[in-house]
Amino acid sequence: MDYMHFCGRYVGNSLPSAPVAAAAADRVGRPCWRLRTAGDPPMKNTKPLLLAAICLSMAACSRNDAPRDPGDGPGAPVDTSQLTPTGAAEPAAALVRLESRSGSAAVGELELRAVEGGVTINGEIGGLTAGSEHGIHVHENGDCSAADASSAGGHFNPHDAPHGAPTVGLEQRHLGDMPNIVADENGFTHINTAIVGATLRDGGPTDLIGRAVVVHEKRDDYVTQPSGDSGGRIACGVIR
Hints:
This protein is mainly beta. The protein contains two helices and twelve strands, in the order ββαβαβββββββββ. The longest helix is centred in the N-terminal third of the chain and has 8 residues, at 51-58.
């Protein structure tokens, strides 16, 4: 995936380092980078579509690589073995621009891409407290208008399942359940995961378009119903 600073000081085929991003922060302390869009000039050596899935299997592209117990956030990566390229010339894709809610400074951008068997999610979130751990989920309503993001509703749950870890079967988790994220010493985290069973732009019950991604103030325990006791909502963005 290609990234470009809002300020125009960085253009490249990988995420800027946290110090670089922090140095380029705007006056309100938000990262100065963004995902490249279709209107940006072409760049050389762009990465393949399934880089996110490859990085997941190798556990080499994530900053959240400290070993953790199974089911405990980023230490339990989603099994992407069943995810394969769609074969489409232009696989369905979407962007999420996360904006601060509940008085936080958290912001970020994510890119979603459809593959056979699910949807890959790749991007970065900044403005977090150093070393903090947060639940992150897809929520049912594509509405982030409320100051506390309550307008996004509950977790996206088309299968009417209980809340659970993203590593278990669809009958044991919400489709919107995702691995926890952990901020580095600069308050940034890289997301490189997938939602098995989700779709993009097919108009079906598992389509993520028009839903919202919400970052919570605390870690998800994957047990407490209905949302893992993950606290308030500190960032929200609509999947478009």
